[in-house]
Structures are given as C-alpha cells and as structure tokens.
C-alpha cells in the first residue's frame, strides 16, 4: 500500500473524476489510509497527507480523568442502605400496628354473633368493615 502512496501521492487518497460527471473511489480506501497513517506515525515520520486523511482529534483531557464511572448501583448503594436501615427500624412498630388493626375486639362482639357466626364471619363483620 505504501508503494502506491509513494508512486501516486495525493491522487491515491482522493476521489477520481472519470469522464464528465462520474467519480470513482480513491485507490487507497479511507480505512487503509488510516492504517498507513498509523504505521507512518509509529515509525516517527510525519504524515504529509493530514489535510486529506486527518486522524481522530486528540482530546486534551481523557474522559473522566481516567477514572471509570462504574455502575449506578454502586454509587447509590450507601444511600439505599440508609433507607433500608430506616425502614427496618420502623418495622416492629408497623407490625404491631398491623396486628392491632387485625385483632378481633371480642368485647364488642355480641353474644349472639359469638354463637351463630364463625371466626371468619366475625372478622368480616367487625374488623374488615372498620378498615374500609
């Protein structure tokens, strides 16, 4: 490839006009030109065709100063753990409130209901209606 570039020069890297309005692709494709450019720069030579085949622009500062961002779950792990600990601290009180709301008030249940209804029916009559 480099021998073609030496022989033809810039013409090998540019589109060729054939006839009146027809264009053909360059003899050396853009991808191969980038490979050649990389080889030239590795040998310490200056790439003379920078105006035709420029390399990728160099970024002065690397992305995120070289630090990897990592997963979102790792960044939010401490905050999430604090929320979990706060919720777990409230849990015994929440369980006690739930059990108190589901407890059947046997003092309020009439003696006739105690004889005629099942425990489930009493629960529906006295507890579930109170929750609605």
UniProtKB/TrEMBL annotation:
Gene3D superfamilies to which the protein is assigned, alphabetical: Growth arrest and DNA-damage-inducible proteins-interacting protein 1 (6.10.280.120)
Chain residue ranges for the region called Disordered: 51-81
Listed PANTHER family: OS05G0114600 PROTEIN
Protein name in UniProt: MRPL25 domain-containing protein
Organism from which the protein derives: Tetradesmus obliquus (Green alga)
């Amino acid at each position: 490839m480099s021998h073609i570039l030496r022989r033809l020069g810039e013409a090998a890297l540019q589109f060729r006009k054939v006839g009146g309005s027809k264009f053909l692709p360059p003899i050396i494709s853009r991808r191969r030109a980038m490979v050649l450019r990389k080889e030239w720069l590795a040998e310490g030579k200056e790439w003379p065709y920078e105006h035709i085949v420029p390399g990728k622009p160099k970024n002065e500062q690397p992305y995120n100063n070289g630090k990897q961002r990592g997963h979102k779950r790792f960044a939010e792990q401490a905050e999430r753990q604090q929320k979990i600990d706060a919720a777990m601290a409230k849990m015994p009180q929440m369980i006690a409130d739930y059990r108190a709301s589901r407890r059947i008030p046997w003092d309020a249940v009439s003696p006739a209901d105690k004889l005629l209804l099942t425990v489930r029916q009493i629960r529906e009559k006295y507890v579930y209606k109170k929750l609605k």
